[in-house]
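Batch manifest, entry 17 of 40.
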Amino acid sequence: MNNSTAALSYDNMNDAHALYVRSPSGRYKQATDDQVLAAGRVAAESLISMSDTMGQPKAVA
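Output type: C-alpha cells
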C-alpha cells in the first residue's frame, strides 16, 4: 500500500503518531480532535474544484 492510501486504512489507526500544533507564543502542544478535524476540512476543501460546473447539476451528472 502506498503512503497516500496507508493514511486512510483502518488497519493502522493505532499506529498513528501524535499531531502537534503551535500556539501563538511558539510553544507546541498535542492537537485536539477538533483541531485535527478542522485541518482535515481545510485540506478537503482544497481538493474540491470551485469551478462553475459544480453549480450546474446537469453538467456534473
